[in-house]
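ok new one. same drill as before - structure tokens go in, u give me an amino acid for every spot. 289 of them this time. try not to just spam alanines like last time pls lmao
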């Protein structure tokens, strides 16, 4: 049994957050000359449709303090803010800790960090609500820039590879046949395209009453970046409900020529989502590579 498996099986086990002290999250517009040109984030409650804000984000241009990893995370809560606030506070810390475990590759680190964070939220007796997440790590490896992505739920990461939008995460929803089969094999069922008739996603943080069926294990991907990879979009379903991947890419690609335009690209994407009639909170992070 691995050390990680033992941690998951021991409900009294937590990871000491003091082992790693990443830098504080920066304001909505951030710059980092080594790994990316510009990253901007915009959050919108969408007051005409929603009375509460359950989205959150974290951007850390230098996660480990050595210039080797940038962290981007978009989180979309449901059923209250308790879980999404826990994820906002702890997930990047868990990722940093796991990255520093000897012999752990970055995809493994992401998978372990997600599950540890989820387990610890249960240990803290946060029993209501849940959250989806889309996370990207931008790294340098052997002189190349490499992107690692992970997600649970229907928040999404999309890469602009030339003129093509490339989706780097998987939507964990009932219309995904693999996810449907997984839930049903675990003893769950779907009613009105919701898990147990309640939840619209098949993977998430929290939702502990359905954890036998609703996993917090992310699907991960490693992507070596090339010169044609110009922009990265992370967004919650408030964007993707009204924008296709390609439409979102075309909007932000049209704003890449000047620094001033880059700084407001996420704002433009979020405002356009509201204009298109999205009924959810809306959060987007746009990273120009």
């Amino acid at each position: 049994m691995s050390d990680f498996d033992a941690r998951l099986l021991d409900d009294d086990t937590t990871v000491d957050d003091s082992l790693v002290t990443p830098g504080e999250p920066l304001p909505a517009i951030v710059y980092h000359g080594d790994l990316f040109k510009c990253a901007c984030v915009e959050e919108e409650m969408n007051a005409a449709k929603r009375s509460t804000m359950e989205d959150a984000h974290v951007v850390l241009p230098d996660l480990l303090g050595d210039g080797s990893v940038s962290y981007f995370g978009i989180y979309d809560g449901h059923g209250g803010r308790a879980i999404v606030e826990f994820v906002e506070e702890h997930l990047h810390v868990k990722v940093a800790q796991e990255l520093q475990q000897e012999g752990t590759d970055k995809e493994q680190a992401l998978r372990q960090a997600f599950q540890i964070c989820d387990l610890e939220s249960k240990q803290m007796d946060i029993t209501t609500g849940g959250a989806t997440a889309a996370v990207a790590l931008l790294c340098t490896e052997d002189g190349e820039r490499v992107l690692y992505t992970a997600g649970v739920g229907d928040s999404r990461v999309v890469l602009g590879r030339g003129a093509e939008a490339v989706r780097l995460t998987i939507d964990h929803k009932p219309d995904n046949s693999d996810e449907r089969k997984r839930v049903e094999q675990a003893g769950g069922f779907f009613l009105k395209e919701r898990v147990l008739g309640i939840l619209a996603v098949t993977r998430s943080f929290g939702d502990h009453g359905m954890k036998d069926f609703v996993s917090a294990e992310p699907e991960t991907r490693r992507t070596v970046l090339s010169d044609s990879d110009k922009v990265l979009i992370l967004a919650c379903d408030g964007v993707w409900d009204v924008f296709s991947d390609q439409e979102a890419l075309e909007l932000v690609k049209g704003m890449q020529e000047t620094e001033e335009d880059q700084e407001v690209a996420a704002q433009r994407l979020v405002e356009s989502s509201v204009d298109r009639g999205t009924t959810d909170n809306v959060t987007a992070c746009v990273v120009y590579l």
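Residues 83 and 122 are 10 Å apart (CA to CA). and btw The domain at 36-288 is CATH 3.60.40.10 (Phosphatase 2c; domain 1).
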